[in-house]
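Late entry, evening session. Most of the bench is empty. Finally got around to the prediction I had been postponing all week. Sequence below, unchanged from the version circulated by S.P.
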Amino acid sequence: MSQLSHFDDAGASRMVNVGAKPATRRVARASGVVRMLPATLTAICQGPAAKGDVREVARLAGIMAAKRTADLIPLCHPLALDSIELQLTPYGDDGLRIESTVEITAKTGVEMEALTAVTVAALTVYDMCKAIDRGMVIERIQLEAKSGGASGDFSRPTAPGAGA
């Protein structure tokens, strides 16, 4: 269990002690896709739906979620984030790609905040559009890149054929 930082040598769960670590600049970027009927994507992109502008509501939900990550994930540290950005863009003729970028200067990283922002934004798209498309699928929520901290940088290789 010692390789998993959220467990001590006896296997008990714990919040990682970051007290002795230096505060450094950290950035994390995550993404995900909501697949839907082409007509649903058209409805989202043409403007406000019956419940409002789907992309703007989802963007706000993702920002709010990133700020509340420690309330959702038991062993995450509560963080005062410096910046949260979300982009929601059409992805082919049946997808909406969601990408978040979260920045902070702190003793711990913001990967979970970036992933939480994407996840909640995707769930919000589903909630707002389920009346017209219950078959939507949320897929490929993943960390794209992170920088800063002792573990170094990470960047997901681009898969062949990836993109819209």
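Two things to note before I forget:
The beta strands are 24-35, 83-91, 95-106, 137-147, 154-155.
The chain has four helices and five strands.
Will write this up properly tomorrow.
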